[in-house]
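Work Package 3 committed the consortium to producing structural models of liganded targets before the mid-term review. Because experimental data for this complex are still outstanding, the team generated a predictive model from sequence and the ligand definition alone, so that downstream docking and mutagenesis planning could proceed in parallel. The input record is reproduced below exactly as it was submitted to the modelling pipeline, together with the SMILES string for S-adenosylmethionine.
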Amino acid sequence: MSQTAADSSSSTRDKALTKVCEERVEIDKSDQRVRRMFASIARRYDLLNHLLSLNIDRSWRRFTTRKVPPQPGVPVLDCCTGTADLALAYDRAAKGLTRVIGTDFCREMLLLGEGKVRKHGATGRVVLIEGDTQRLPVPSDTFGVVSVAFGLRNVRDTVRGIDEMIRTARPQGKVAILEFSRPRGRFLGRIYLAFFRHILPRLGQAIAPNQDQAYHYLPRTVLSFPDGQDMINLLGSRGLIELRMYPLTLGIATLYVGTKPSKGGASYGQEPTR
Ligand SMILES: C[S@@+](CC[C@H](N)C(=O)[O-])C[C@H]1O[C@@H](n2cnc3c(N)ncnc32)[C@H](O)[C@@H]1O
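The resulting structure, written out as tokens with the ligand in place, is given here.
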């Protein structure tokens, strides 16, 4: 593609995205609203997740545990763990040699997660704790892996959530963030936008009816959340090093990985770059 055609295609895409962002009503990400919304869809959450992603979400979590593997005997923390899918994926990857702590501030999601932990015979190895990712109820410098899947986007103060993940990771520990992203490319970008804006909210509302319009909220949060290089820049500005990103399934989701520097290395918590 010539430079001019490439420019015009990316400017068309940018305009489409800008339009979506402008159209979006102010997203209410207050803790209370987010907690209530997940409580109201909790019972259907897993079903919808696997249905809407055609089960691909499972492979994204497996990929995460392979790229950012647990170390024997070094605990893993999964924030915004919800119904514990990533926590359980880490338990499987660790072959029972590592304790996995999952935290979430929505009790209804955690109760379902606890049922799954029992069903998988992981009681005692996977422990779920009620807690806000902006104030994680766990000590600093402890975990070899601190992960989050499809949760950070929902945290009211993203930077605070990232800072907490970094605080709780041990020096040289990994922070792994699996999140939806916007596929690059003109054709796929358009299909994705159409699906996300028109089909997904209707399907979601039909299968898991809820007052908070959770499946209208999903595309709005994804489209207004930093992805790709913007996310890498944000993570770097908070002090993570050795940053990598892995776009998955044509960029519908991306795994971002960073390392917490050793003590005395780079400092954490600078202002994010804009
Ligand atoms: C989309 S679900 C993801 C659940 C799970 N990680 C997965 O991969 O399926 C988002 C979860 O983030 C939780 N959450 C959102 N904001 C939170 C916060 N500030 N502190 C703790 N949990 C939060 C919600 O309660 C919900 O369970």
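Reviewers should note the following from the model. Confidence is low (pLDDT under 50) at residues 1-25, 267-274. These observations will guide the Year 2 experiments.
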